[in-house]
Amino acid sequence: MSVYQHxxxxxxxxxxxxxxxxxxxxxxxxxxxxxxVGIVHASGADLILYGGSLMTGAYFEEGLKIIRxxxxxxxxxxxxxxxxxxxxxxxxLFTSLISGRNPEFLIGQQVLAAPVVKAAGLExxxxxxxxxxxxxxxxxxxxxxxxxIPRHKPEIAATTAMAGEMLGQxxxxxxxxxGAEHAVSSAxxxxxxxxxxxxxxxxxxxxxxxxxLARYEAGADVAVVGTAAEKDPFVIRDMVCAxxxxx
Length: 247
Ligand code: 1GP
Known about the structure:
Elements: H1 3-13, E1 17-22, H2 30-43, E2 47-50, H3 60-70, E3 75-77, E4 91-97, H4 103-120, E5 123-131, H5 139-144, H6 154-166, E6 171-175, H7 186-193, E7 200-203, H8 209-218, E8 222-225, H9 227-231, H10 234-246
Parallel strand pairs: 1-2, 1-8, 2-3, 3-4, 4-5, 5-6, 6-7, 7-8
Helix pairs in contact: 2-3, 2-10, 6-7, 7-8, 8-10
Bound molecules: SN-glycerol-1-phosphate (1GP).
């Protein structure tokens, strides 16, 4: 089964998925990365996303190989730029930043990445990526030089997601950005979910099992947790417990 089939069949059956985002810029100590991945693996998380908005170190490929040694959880690249492509992953979120109006992140980086992605033989998951204002500027919004969707405008998010699906995107990713002060609101998640038929991914600022369940309740099919897992990987164990008890 492909990674995308796994996501769609889970969404159809109402099985919520938990994805852990590992950022090579933050986890560049080998011992720490091995320990984190070991805990994520033992916790029973469903997916690993790998990538970041910046790439300050040269640790990308090395880190990916270590993750593969430590777990069989599918690894999906979540690249901040065309530089973050590797054959050592299972799939790639081939994102277009549809909430923004910066051609570089709508199509520019994708043109540069396309031949590399093809040569890598990765499973490609076309993804409509939307950044949502979350209380303070995030790296994703700053680096992409785009205005996030206003937090209290669910209708803008919903119509943007509709357009993304009509353009052929197979996933919609609503992201408050890494370390978001406020996670994407339930109102926005349910507004988007009501207008699309492809699976919905939600991330940014989800730090507790309660915040996680609220995102699923509102309509997220996949929730992404990064910063909280970097601070304390055991939070993933607590989140998986809460998820299993609720669904
Ligand atoms: C960021 O959605 C991810 O792109 C995860 O965000 O680091 O806030 O969990 P956090």
